[in-house]
Amino acid sequence: MGTTQRAELFARHHFSFAGYARSDRTNWGSLRILNHNFLAPGASTVPQPLDHFDILQWVLRGRVGHVGTLGTSHLAQARHIQLISSGEGLVHADINPDKEEAEFLELRFPAPEGHGPAFRAVGQFPGKEDGGRWTLLASGRRDDHALLLRAPSRVWGARIETGEQLHANLDPRASCYIVAGSGRSVLGDNYLLDPGDGLAIQGESEATIRAIETAEILLVESL
Description:
This protein folds into 2 domains: 2-124, Jelly Rolls, CATH 2.60.120.10; 128-222, Jelly Rolls, CATH 2.60.120.10. The chain has a 7-stranded antiparallel sheet with strand order 1-2-3-10-5-8-11, with no helix packed on it. It has a 6-stranded mixed sheet with strand order 13-12-14-21-16-19, with no helix packed on it. The model has no long low-confidence stretch (mean pLDDT 92). The chain contains no helices and 21 strands. The protein has strands spanning 2-5, 9-13, 33-39, 48-50, 53-61, 63-68, 75-77, 80-85, 90-95, 102-110, 119-124, 135-139, 147-148, 153-160, 165-169, 175-182, 185-187, 191-193, 198-202, 206-211, 215-222. By secondary structure, it is mainly beta. The radius of gyration is 17 Å and the shape is globular. A hairpin with a 3-residue loop joins strand 17 (185-187) and strand 18 (191-193).
């Protein structure tokens, strides 16, 4: 993975981003950017113009807010999913209003033109009470009744308790990407996932994840 180190931000990049450029890691399906971000206490990132992108943020620790076109009246807390859709254009920066470091995963999907104005929406990541099953968090299909992406993708989340395993049915036509938010887990028999790790899957119809310790996982499925 590539990294960015600045006074306000440390980030690990799963795909080409900023100064990290690899021709073989520009995207996976419609998933263009996946960054594991650590935002310093009281810090904010540099505001940047964005258009035709959906930004999906999973807050792991602390609170993260949007600064820019959509205002700062709402903050996403730990265990929340925040969707910021740039529409035809907005100015975006992240802010950490607290005295402790904020940690979050950020995914970006290119969105087609002509899909309306920018907007923000927030959802909840599944917890222990959700019984170790996949919860659909965001989707490009309106009838899924999840946070609405403008890209042809679906994003699922799950919490898996220690020693338990969770099965996923996959579309073999899709480009799937699994990323660990917390805990340690194993995909299949061979692939260990530590927090922040990701694994690309293509051409498979199923996958099984076993938690070595309580783990929280995202599954992205894009065509």
